[in-house]
Amino acid sequence: MTERTPKTPPRSGKILIVDDDPDVIEYLSSFLEDHDYEVRAARSTNAALAELGRHRPDTILIDILMPGRSGLDLLLNIRRNPEWSDLPVVVITGHDKILEDDCQSYLGSRENVRGPDGVLGKPVDRDTLLSVLRVLAGRQARE
User: Which residue from 8, 23, 51, 143 lies 20 to 30 Å from 1 (Cα-Cα)?
Assistant: First the structure.
């Protein structure tokens, strides 16, 4: 009889959550970890940029309204950096204007800047979030 070594189940993916609200980070982290995602978090744009320099996630979840540099500034930094420009980004916001136009009123004046890969409202619907993450993972697998 051959002895089999148990394998660690594969992770669903690596997620970076960027939000200044620790309660939102805790809520999303717990939920995503329960669904086998590896989660890292940053509470500001600057902290997120530092984290991206250390660890490449599969997807980034970004809050828009944060003190200091906004999540949209972070999105611009990501899209303009050749090392990160291909990373899927999902914006999470409670701001109705951003939800209505998928950030285009802010990004539209910037040439050659791809917008977010998804925009979700707060409070985040967990089933919708999982669906978006699965679609983005499938898109990455095909590329």
Answer: 8
